[in-house]
């Protein structure tokens, strides 16, 4: 399914009560749109439940309740494209207000709302931020939300999301597996289905392809061997890959039955790719870390281990030109 060009950018946007309350100053320098290549920005790196995490009185969260860290935002990417004068969010997280505000700053405030939001699936960290677009908050009009068929149906048929559709706060833009959405002549977004706990929707990752470079974004997936694709081959096709880093290893989850929380451990992903040349391994930027993941702390032994093995941990505020 090809979308010819961005006619919906001209959809009039009505912002009601545009107040972000205690919105966080994310200290990102504003910059204006220009004709430079599209850029990916990391707007969040944490798993759905955020950090600090509700009910957690362990060392990972205790101090964060006293002194919240501005860089602990739920997983999201921003995409800013000068040629089409557009900007996009990947995921609508519970931290949407701050991430939206940051994306605005990255476009020099020239676009007051994103030109669209791409969703991966219906787990709380990935779509629940849509609530901020409704009449109790922004009362936005016509924000394009890109979603796969089951995800679209889920939003249409279940309140409160169905109200966003009925009131045209959002406009659902249907996606199909592996069919590119053409954002401009030099930028496309391709959804790729991945296996996951799909209670309410299917799950996709995205390949974001720019004029010079491309990025793979898979924040949630079951173990790599349950995917019908080969991770190393997928990695070869891109220049950077933001991959599921929910848990570091089995010890972190107390050796729980992983059928309840199936994710590849970071150590498994690293083992799986360890025979690749350093250039390939260095493309991996781990993202979507649970509050317990030691790699959220740059001074941890696990963080050092990841870097020593040639991989990276995605950092809030990172950018990558496509
Ligand atoms: Zn998630
Ligand atoms: Zn915690």
Structure at a glance:
The protein has nine helices and 14 strands. The chain is of the alpha/beta class.
Structure description:
It contains nine helices and 14 strands. The longest helix is centred in the first third of the chain and has 11 residues, at 96-106. It starts with 38 loop residues before the first strand and ends with a strand. It has helices at residues 59-66, 96-106, 124-127, 149-157, 161-166, 231-236, 266-273, 278-281, 301-308; strands at residues 39-44, 76-81, 86-90, 116-118, 143-147, 170-174, 181-184, 187-194, 203-209, 214-218, 240-244, 284-287, 312-313, 319-321. The protein is globular and about 45 Å long. Strand 8 (187-194) and strand 9 (203-209) form a beta hairpin. Helix content is 20%, strand content 21%. 42% of the residues are buried. The chain has a single domain, classed as Metallo-beta-lactamase, Chain A, CATH 3.60.15. It has 322 residues and is an alpha/beta fold. A seven-stranded mixed beta sheet has the order 6-5-4-3-2-1-14. The structure holds zinc ion (2 copies). Residues 47-48, 123, 125-126, 219-220, 288 line the site of one zinc ion (ZN).
The tally of domains stands at 1
Label the overall shape.
globular
Distance between the first and last residues' Cα: 23 Å
Q: Tell me the CATH architecture.
A: 4-Layer Sandwich
* Bound chemical compounds: zinc ion
Q: Which assembly state applies to the chains in this document?
A: single chain
Q: Tell me the number of helical segments per DSSP (H or I, 4 or more residues long).
A: 9
What is the topology, as strand order, of the major beta sheet?
6-5-4-3-2-1-14
Percent strand: 15-25%
- What kind of sheet is the major sheet? 7 strands, mixed
Write down the overall mean pLDDT: 89
How much helix is in the residues? 10-25%
Rounded radius of gyration (Å): 19 Å
Low-confidence stretches: 1-30
SSE order, one letter for each helix or strand:
EHEEHEHEHHEEEEEHEHHEHEE
CATH topology: Metallo-beta-lactamase, Chain A
Top CATH class? Alpha Beta
């Amino acid at each position: 399914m090809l979308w010819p060009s961005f006619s919906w950018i001209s959809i009039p946007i009505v912002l009601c009560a545009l107040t972000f309350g205690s919105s966080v100053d994310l200290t990102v320098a504003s910059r204006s749109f220009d004709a430079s290549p599209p850029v990916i920005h990391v707007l969040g790196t944490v798993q759905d439940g955020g950090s600090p995490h509700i009910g957690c009185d362990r060392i990972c969260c205790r101090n964060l309740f006293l002194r919240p860290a501005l860089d602990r935002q739920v997983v999201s990417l921003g995409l800013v494209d000068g040629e089409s004068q557009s900007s996009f969010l990947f995921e609508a997280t519970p931290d949407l207000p701050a991430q939206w505000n940051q994306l605005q700053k990255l476009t020099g405030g020239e676009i007051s709302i994103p030109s669209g939001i791409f969703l991966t699936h219906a787990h709380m960290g990935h779509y629940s931020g849509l609530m901020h677009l409704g009449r109790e908050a922004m009362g936005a009009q016509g924000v394009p939300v890109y979603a796969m068929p089951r995800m679209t149906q889920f939003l249409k048929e279940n309140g409160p999301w169905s109200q966003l559709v009925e009131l045209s706060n959002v406009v659902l833009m249907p996606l199909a597996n592996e069919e590119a959405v053409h954002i401009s002549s030099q930028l496309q977004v391709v959804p790729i289905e991945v296996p996951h706990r799909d209670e309410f929707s299917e799950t996709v990752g995205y390949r974001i392809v720019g004029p010079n470079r491309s990025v793979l974004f898979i924040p949630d997936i079951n173990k790599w061997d349950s995917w019908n694709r080969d991770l190393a081959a997928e990695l070869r096709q891109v220049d950077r890959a933001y991959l599921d880093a929910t848990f570091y290893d089995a010890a972190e989850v107390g050796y729980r039955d992983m059928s309840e929380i199936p994710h590849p451990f970071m150590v498994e992903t690293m083992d799986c790719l360890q025979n690749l040349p350093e250039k390939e391994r260095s493309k991996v930027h781990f993202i979507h870390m649970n509050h317990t993941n030691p790699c959220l702390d740059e001074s941890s032994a696990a963080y050092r281990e990841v870097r020593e093995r040639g991989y990276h941990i995605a950092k809030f505020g990172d950018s990558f030109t496509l």
